[in-house]
Design brief:
This protein has 490 residues and is mostly helical. It contains 24 helices and two strands. Strands 1-2 form a two-stranded antiparallel ribbon. The chain is elongated and about 135 Å long.
Length: 490
Amino acid sequence: MLTIPRFDETYAAFHIKPSELNGSLSPVHQHSVWHSEGDRLYDHKRYQESIACYERALVNKSDEYLVWNKLGLAQAALQQYQQARSSFDQAIEISPNVYVAWYNKGNVLRELRHHEDAVANYDKALECQPKHHEDWVWHNRGLSLWDLGHLEESAKSYDHAVSTNPRNFQSWANRGKVLSQLGHYQEALASYDRSIEIEDGEYLTWANRAITLSELGNLEGALKSLDKSLELNPANDELWNDRGVFLYELDRYEEALESFDQSISLKPDEDTNWFNRGNALLRLKHFDKAVNSYDQALNINPSNHWVWDNRGCALSELNRLNEAIASYDQALTQCPTSYSAWNNRGADLYSMGYYQEALNSFDQAVALKLDKALYWTNRGNALRQLGQLENALASYNTALSINQTYSQAQYWHSIVLKDLEQKNKIKLETQLNEYEQTSEENKRLAFHKALLASGLVKQIKQTSRNSGSIRPLIQVQGKPISETIIEERR
């Protein structure tokens, strides 16, 4: 997570209380007293009362930009962002060259999700060159650029922030987050490490560092970093869930299950926690318990297609194939482009002997995910069962072009080749037997038909001899028969 904006707070000190006011004080002095009381109340987080004091101060002296700025801060503290924006506008109108109101207005605009306007206000603040707080302007500017999806520019803002103040651990941490999103994982890791050198008590920095380490393939390191985060914040269900995910990816399913149980005990109404618990149980072959976990997830969020899909897998392992297919159908209702659900649906239809329906599902899967060797292999198996051996062979060939070492595709490819050889052998033997049983006249006619089909002959005429017998008169196209070579084709 990224650090929220900080507002700049600047106060003056006054010592007379409003209860001590009398008619002898000038409006300027009364302004100062109300201003001072507003500051005191603000310091005690009594924001609504401080707002009333600042407003009384402005009645006596309305051209004081500092009071307008503080009024805006108190309003922002109560999330009255539109009112705060108006107060900062008043401060800017009075003193357009003072950075603080531009900066605070930028923070309010960011809270209102007007990120482009927020960046423009931060830029105005930077034009005023407030060296003592410039790092925070760059920091929050980076936040708004992040929210706009301008990650490269956001990273540059954080570069400026840490250059201005190398001890700003929050800017180092946010810089790491942006660099990680850009895929610059080693640089991100270095940024997190720099933040931790300055302040090692920020659990989010340790957690985000863990995610970056996992992206680098260092799951053991990621787990250690996450454990440090949990030491700092043991009641965070998301951290326990992430820990379970890392353990799951390390094939440590029992430990992963324990972590998911912890996340559920902290937040039982989070569907992701139940879903991941179901996945660990599925790996441990506790299929009934996995189904129960998936059901809990679906009670919370019935639109999660991944849960329906994996629930179908667990039901399939229990040989409850009709229920499994119904679960895949639910997944596809939520997400018709779920190639995993189409494949799993096809696999269970195949197991039930519905090969054409299975083929239809596999066709959907490969159309959505062309580079998955498993799907092409499954499609080939369905075609083989339907007797479409040539098409099956083509499917296996596609699978092997994606993954030459995929053993299932290699195995079924060899089986279909043998099937085709046997099929062709039987076909040839059948044709030879039929030919041997044919009369001489039919053999001659078959030979003539073959010649005509070859294109070497344009016409066959029947002529008679004196004996009354029939013989063919063959007319060759283009050249004499003696110059025509008929090649055997295999």
